[in-house]
Amino acid sequence: MKKKVAVIFGGRSGEHEVSIVSALSVVKNIDRSQFDVALIGVTKEGRFVSVDEAEFLTHQTNPRLLKLEQAVRNISLNPGTDFPAQIKGSAIDSLQVDVVFPLIHGTNGEDGTLQGLLELSGLPYVGSGVLGSAMGMDKDVAKRILRDAGISVVPFTTVRTAAWEKSPLEVMTEILDRFPFPFFVKPACAGSSVGVSKVKSKADLSSALKNAFLYDNKVLIEEGISARELEVAVLGNEAPRASLVGEILPSHEFYSYEAKYIDENGAQAFIPAHDLSLAEVEMIRKLAMDTFLALELSGLARVDFFMDKNTRAIYLNEVNTLPGFTPISMYPKLWAASGISYSHLISELIQLAEERAAQRRKLKLTYDVG
Question: Whole-angstrom Cα distance, residue 225 to residue 165?
Fold first, then answer.
């Protein structure tokens, strides 16, 4: 008997359109001999809606034209239901779902909020839980935890909205005293390089901070190094495994949102990465798995590294707990090069989600006194 997989996409984040592209790719590549699909869109206002698959697939050539706001069938997740869980809708009596595949990248999807809703609703889901998702999304928290775990990170500091609004000149002076040019300013909890600026002079700093604060109340300032950008895909739960090491070579000044998703020539991907020794490859793959475990992740993650071009030192850049699944996304491409097809990758992620949910169902949720 086929299992019902609910693909959730869209969302209230700057990566809404990217999420639609990821969902289209999953829907087109999921093994239909094993799974039936239900599509759940989340509008930019946060409304959950049922999306017709035939209509959804008509937007393959330009997914950005899909307007979830025009959907009329609202749905809701019901906390406390049994397995398989039910999703209620205004135009359907109920929909039994075996597992959810969340593909909402960034805020309100990748940061633990959606995962908390799914936990409350009793729905098994692909990817990390509330804690791992939240830590992976917050670059400041993730870097502090990984630094304490002995994993090297690029020197950084953070600034919060209150400090910036109270004394912007003091904040900028402290940053300029600490970081040589160029350095990077980025929202602490945003993905896909949204709100990221490369600061090359004192005149750039104020606008870079203002731009980053549009997307988060905490902003990361990170030392700029002349580095290669290396990426590893991780798959698993308590015994994760790592893909080949890939390399991104942006044609833009850095790997920006435009380079990732708008300019089709924005970057070149090399899988495997060139000019790495076997020892370096194994070290990077081990660091990726160590990072996965240190941040309490499960299911999947793409772990990004910097390699200093001069010293060849390795630094953890960031972790993506719900990486892109578009046709050009590195996560599925890394696994394809490592011997796992896109379709098989989806099936394995669903299996990992079910295994994790089964383990959690064994836990006692009550305490009997006496």
Answer: 29
Give the CATH number of domain 156-223: 3.30.1490.20
Output the pTM of the full model: 0.90
Task: Concatenate the DSSP letters of all residues of 211-279 into one string.
Answer: HHHTT-SEEEEEE---EEEEEEEEEESSS-EEEEEEEEEESSSS--HIIIII-TTSEEEESSPSS--HH
Mean pLDDT of the 193-218 span? 93
95: enclosing H helix or E strand: strand 95-97
* CATH architecture, domain 3-125: 3-Layer(aba) Sandwich (3.40)
Half-sphere exposure of 52 (CA within 13 A, CB side): 8
Q: Compute the average pLDDT of residues 135-152.
A: 96
**Phi, psi (deg, nearest 5) at residue 352:** -65, -40
Is the separation of the CB atoms in 27 and 343 below 8 Å?
no
Report the range of poorest mean pLDDT among 46-50, 169-173, 203-207, 230-234: 46-50
